[in-house]
Amino acid sequence: MKKISLFVGILAVMVIFIFVITSEKDEIKKIDAETLQNKLENEEITLLDVRETSEYEGGHIEGAVNAPLSSLDANELPYPKDEPIYVICRSGNRSAQAANRLQEAGYTKVYDVSGGMMAWESIE
Asked: Nearest to residue 45, comparing CAs of 57, 31, 58?
Protein backbone atom coordinates (compact mmCIF):
# COMPACT_ATOMS: atom_id res chain seq x y z
CA MET A 1 0.00 0.00 0.00
CA LYS A 2 2.86 2.37 0.85
CA LYS A 3 4.48 1.66 -2.52
CA ILE A 4 1.28 2.58 -4.36
CA SER A 5 0.91 5.81 -2.37
CA LEU A 6 4.53 6.70 -3.06
CA PHE A 7 4.08 5.94 -6.77
CA VAL A 8 0.91 8.06 -6.98
CA GLY A 9 2.64 10.90 -5.12
CA ILE A 10 5.64 10.85 -7.47
CA LEU A 11 3.34 10.68 -10.48
CA ALA A 12 1.35 13.68 -9.22
CA VAL A 13 4.54 15.72 -8.71
CA MET A 14 5.70 14.83 -12.23
CA VAL A 15 2.37 15.87 -13.76
CA ILE A 16 2.44 19.19 -11.90
CA PHE A 17 6.05 19.78 -12.97
CA ILE A 18 5.24 19.08 -16.63
CA PHE A 19 2.21 21.36 -16.45
CA VAL A 20 4.24 24.22 -14.97
CA ILE A 21 7.03 23.84 -17.54
CA THR A 22 4.67 23.77 -20.53
CA SER A 23 2.37 26.52 -19.27
CA GLU A 24 5.22 29.01 -18.87
CA LYS A 25 5.49 29.32 -22.64
CA ASP A 26 2.85 31.70 -23.94
CA GLU A 27 0.93 30.40 -26.86
CA ILE A 28 1.34 32.25 -30.14
CA LYS A 29 -1.87 34.11 -30.80
CA LYS A 30 -3.50 33.98 -34.20
CA ILE A 31 -5.33 36.99 -35.57
CA ASP A 32 -7.32 37.38 -38.75
CA ALA A 33 -6.71 39.89 -41.53
CA GLU A 34 -9.56 42.13 -40.39
CA THR A 35 -8.05 42.43 -36.92
CA LEU A 36 -4.69 43.27 -38.47
CA GLN A 37 -6.31 45.93 -40.64
CA ASN A 38 -7.93 47.46 -37.54
CA LYS A 39 -4.60 47.45 -35.69
CA LEU A 40 -2.85 49.14 -38.63
CA GLU A 41 -5.53 51.83 -38.81
CA ASN A 42 -5.49 52.57 -35.08
CA GLU A 43 -2.04 51.75 -33.74
CA GLU A 44 1.62 51.84 -34.64
CA ILE A 45 2.64 48.18 -34.83
CA THR A 46 5.61 46.09 -35.88
CA LEU A 47 4.62 43.91 -38.82
CA LEU A 48 7.13 41.44 -40.22
CA ASP A 49 6.50 40.10 -43.73
CA VAL A 50 8.47 36.85 -43.83
CA ARG A 51 8.00 36.16 -47.53
CA GLU A 52 11.02 36.18 -49.81
CA THR A 53 12.17 39.59 -51.06
CA SER A 54 10.78 39.02 -54.57
CA GLU A 55 7.34 38.24 -53.12
CA TYR A 56 7.49 41.30 -50.86
CA GLU A 57 8.51 43.53 -53.75
CA GLY A 58 5.55 42.20 -55.74
CA GLY A 59 3.21 43.79 -53.20
CA HIS A 60 3.09 44.20 -49.45
CA ILE A 61 1.23 45.91 -46.65
CA GLU A 62 2.34 49.50 -46.14
CA GLY A 63 4.68 49.70 -43.19
CA ALA A 64 5.54 45.99 -43.19
CA VAL A 65 9.21 45.13 -42.79
CA ASN A 66 10.58 42.38 -45.02
CA ALA A 67 12.36 39.70 -42.98
CA PRO A 68 12.44 36.55 -45.15
CA LEU A 69 12.01 33.33 -43.19
CA SER A 70 14.90 31.77 -45.12
CA SER A 71 17.33 34.19 -43.47
CA LEU A 72 15.41 35.17 -40.32
CA ASP A 73 17.54 35.30 -37.19
CA ALA A 74 15.10 36.29 -34.46
CA ASN A 75 17.97 37.07 -32.11
CA GLU A 76 19.24 39.77 -34.48
CA LEU A 77 15.98 41.73 -34.76
CA PRO A 78 16.07 45.25 -33.31
CA TYR A 79 12.62 45.13 -31.68
CA PRO A 80 11.86 45.07 -27.93
CA LYS A 81 11.01 41.53 -26.89
CA ASP A 82 8.16 42.61 -24.64
CA GLU A 83 6.23 44.57 -27.29
CA PRO A 84 3.75 43.08 -29.76
CA ILE A 85 5.11 41.83 -33.06
CA TYR A 86 2.88 40.67 -35.91
CA VAL A 87 4.00 38.17 -38.55
CA ILE A 88 2.57 37.62 -42.03
CA CYS A 89 3.47 35.56 -45.11
CA ARG A 90 1.54 34.41 -48.18
CA SER A 91 -0.78 31.83 -46.61
CA GLY A 92 0.17 31.40 -42.95
CA ASN A 93 2.70 28.56 -43.02
CA ARG A 94 5.94 30.54 -42.97
CA SER A 95 4.54 33.09 -40.53
CA ALA A 96 3.77 30.29 -38.07
CA GLN A 97 7.37 29.07 -38.35
CA ALA A 98 8.69 32.61 -37.92
CA ALA A 99 6.41 33.19 -34.92
CA ASN A 100 7.85 30.08 -33.27
CA ARG A 101 11.39 31.34 -33.88
CA LEU A 102 10.48 34.70 -32.37
CA GLN A 103 8.99 33.07 -29.33
CA GLU A 104 12.03 30.84 -28.88
CA ALA A 105 14.20 33.99 -29.06
CA GLY A 106 12.26 35.50 -26.15
CA TYR A 107 9.54 37.58 -27.81
CA THR A 108 6.54 37.45 -25.50
CA LYS A 109 3.73 38.98 -27.59
CA VAL A 110 3.79 37.30 -30.98
CA TYR A 111 0.79 37.39 -33.32
CA ASP A 112 0.52 35.22 -36.43
CA VAL A 113 -1.80 36.52 -39.17
CA SER A 114 -4.03 33.62 -40.22
CA GLY A 115 -4.34 33.21 -43.97
CA GLY A 116 -1.52 35.65 -44.62
CA MET A 117 -1.52 37.95 -47.65
CA MET A 118 -4.16 35.80 -49.32
CA ALA A 119 -6.58 36.68 -46.52
CA TRP A 120 -5.41 40.30 -46.51
CA GLU A 121 -6.06 40.69 -50.23
CA SER A 122 -9.54 39.21 -49.87
CA ILE A 123 -10.64 42.02 -47.51
CA GLU A 124 -9.42 44.87 -49.69
From this structure: 31
Cα–Cα nearest to 95, from 34, 58, 51: 51
Within 24-78, residue ranges assigned H as helices are 33-42, 53-57
DSSP per position, 73-113 = -GGG--S-TTS-EEEE-SSSHHHHHHHHHHHHTT-S-EEEE
Q: Is 47 helix (H, G, I), strand (E, B) or coil?
A: strand
Is 89 an active-site residue?
A: yes
Tell me the whole-structure pTM to 2 decimals.
0.79
Q: Return mean pLDDT, the chain.
A: 88
On whether the CB atoms of residues 85 and 64 are closer than 8 A, the answer is no
Q: Among the options 74, 87, 89, 98, which is catalytic?
A: 89
pLDDT, tens digit (0-9, with 9 covering 90-100), for 21-33: 544 456 899 999 9
